[in-house]
Each structure stands twice: as C-alpha cells, then as structure tokens.
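Tokens as discussed.
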C-alpha cells in the first residue's frame, strides 16, 4: 500500500511542477504515476510498476508534446521592441570591427551590431533589423 501513496505523490508533484513551468514536460508523468498507482493497488510487482510508469510517461512525452505545442501555439510574449524586427533605420554611428554602432528608432537610440564580426557599415547607411538580443539591435545592410 505504500507504493500507492508514493505514485500518488509522484503524480501530485508532477502537477505542481507543470503548473510552475508550463513546458508540457512533467504533465506526462502525471499519467504514468496514476497508472503505476493503479498497478500498485492491484499488487503488481514494483518492477512492472516502474516499467509501466517509464513506458507510458516516455511514450506520451515523445508522441504528444510537439503536436500539442503546435495546437496551443507558441507562448512567446511579444514586446513593443519585437515590432522593430524587419524595419529599416539609418545608422547614426558606424559599425566597425568590434565596435557597435547606433540607430534611432522612434525616440530611442539603440545600440546596433551585426551578426558577423568584422562587418563594417558606415554612418548614414540604411540597415534592417534582423533580431533583438538583449538591448542590442542586430542589423544587416539594407539592399
């Protein structure tokens, strides 16, 4: 009867972890824990409880996580800064070897850099924002 409570605890702990992380990883261990708990209730050997727990949790994780993530969508929280990606701006200060430049987007002056070291872009050139890393705009020369 002890293993019934242990498996119930595993399922409960998995629920708590899933609520905290919301990554759809530990949710599958809930089902594995409940199955193992049922097996413990009918006095199935511990080794088979473990096999059932690992097998069901692993299969559900492998087969269900990606499709469900696609259904519920990406939980990425967009920021106002994300709206700058793809936009073009005039470079205020040049981007030189190991020296970041700057661009003005609205009322904010951003540090601008390229993805590739050694790329030089003179001031006054038009650049396109390809991504944002921290407080830096990663840009490329607009064509």
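Sequence:
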């Amino acid at each position: 009867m002890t293993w019934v409570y242990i498996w119930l605890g595993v399922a409960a702990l998995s629920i708590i972890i899933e609520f905290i992380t919301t990554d759809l990883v530990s949710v599958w261990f809930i089902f594995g824990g409940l199955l193992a708990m049922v097996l413990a209730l009918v006095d199935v050997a511990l080794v088979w409880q473990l096999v059932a727990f690992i097998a069901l949790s692993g299969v559900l994780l492998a087969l269900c996580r990606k499709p469900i993530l696609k259904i519920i969508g990406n939980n990425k929280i967009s920021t106002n800064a994300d709206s700058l990606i793809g936009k073009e701006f005039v470079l205020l200060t040049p981007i030189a070897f190991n020296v970041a430049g700057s661009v003005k987007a609205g009322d904010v002056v951003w540090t601008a850099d390229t993805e590739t070291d050694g790329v030089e872009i003179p001031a006054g050139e038009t650049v396109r924002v390809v991504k944002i890393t921290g407080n830096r705009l990663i840009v490329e020369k607009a064509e």
